[in-house]
Amino acid sequence: MLVDDVRINAVAGNGGEGIQTFIGTRKGIKFGPSGGDGGRGGSIYFLASHNENDLSRFQNRNAIKAEHGSKGEIKNHNGRDASDTIVLVPFGTIIKDEKYGRQFEITDTKNPVLVARGGEGELGSYNLTKKAGKQTVKRIGQSTTLHLSLTLIADIGLIGLPNAGKSSLLKALTNATPKIGNYQFTTLEPNLGVLDKLILADIPGLIEGASEGKGLGIKFLKHIEKTKVLLHCITADDPDPIITYETVRKEFEKYNKKLLSKREIILLTKKDLATEEEIANKQKLFKDNEILTVSIYDPKSLEELKNKLQTL
Q1: What mean pLDDT comes out for the span 198-206?
Q2: Are 237 and 268 in contact (CB under 8 A)?
Q3: Same domain, 181 and 305
């Protein structure tokens, strides 16, 4: 199941305690402070990774927590600084910081973005004496709630009404294993598959009224926003493919007109269920669109589709 929207707490580590020790005493008077400072708490950073496809690993987690710094030691030895926590997320992840009102888009695969700073180590007696007894460090690490969402889930989105053959096609083109059945909403969440370096998403079937929340529509329309190119699947035996096509396009227009400007290819699926003449007539109806035909039982048509997708 694809997860593209989560909330999670980020809790940076606290700085370690400083230690208050002295070398010794003379006539009851302490001298020679020797207590080391506490170590720095771990910070939390986010980094983009092309190896991450969604946010599912955060779904059952309440928080990301960094380590605390270690306590200072005697003989002016400072405590160990905690390691920072670097969290890998898909390229283009949007992070909204609900506490501090900040927003980040994670697009850099080399330079991590700081979201929660670790606390500073408390001063030990050695450095505290130098500062005339003033303790100014912030030991407590930052904590906040983060809202993570994906701007992109796939290069190519397979869209269309229920039972248009999207799941079967995804399985034939990639290594995905989607649930397949001849009834509405077999697919309840987008399924992802990889064709060479392309990520394909089987977007659950839309129905008329989806933009008004009917069926599972609004959620699915949000998924469609997060694809680069749309592969609009219509079965080759559809008695009125124009009405089928316009049903989906009208829902796009009602929800977000920007969806209408995405590059789109019409794909007549299940071509084995129609004659060549029927297919030719339907292709003429879409003469102003890019149009392809395919059957999962026809290796040649699958290979032609793969080659086309790889050139997009």
Answers
A1: 77
A2: no
A3: yes
Q: What are the residues whose beta carbons fall under 8 Å from the beta carbon of 88, sequence distance 6 or more?
A: 46, 47, 48, 49, 51, 52
Non-local CB neighbours of 17 within 8 Å, separated by 6+ positions: 38, 71, 72, 79, 122, 139
Burial 63-78 (b: 16+ CB within 10 A, else e): ebbbbbbbbbbeebeb
pLDDT at 275 over 70: yes
**Is 222 within 8 Å of 190 (Cβ atoms)?**
no
**Cβ–Cβ < 8 Å for 249, 260:** yes
CATH assignment of the domain containing 265: 3.40.50.300
pTM: 0.64
Domain that holds residue 230: 154-310
Domain-ending residue, one of 150, 173, 194? 150
Largest CA distance in the chain: 110
Taking the C-alpha atoms of residue 282 and residue 242, their distance in angstroms, rounded to an integer, is 9
Q: Are 125 and 267 within one domain?
A: no
Half-sphere exposure of 11 (CA within 13 A, CB side): 10
- 178 and 49 belong to one structural domain: no
Q: Inform me whether the pLDDT recorded for 1 exceeds 70.
A: no
State residue 41 phi and psi, 5-degree precision: -75, 155
pLDDT > 70: what percent of the chain?
85
Judge if 183 and 122 occupy the same domain.
no
Instruction: Indicate whether 263 pLDDT > 60.
Output: yes
Instruction: Write the CB contacts of 77 (distance below 8 Å, at least 6 apart in sequence).
Output: 36
**Cβ–Cβ under 8 Å, residues 89 and 49:** yes
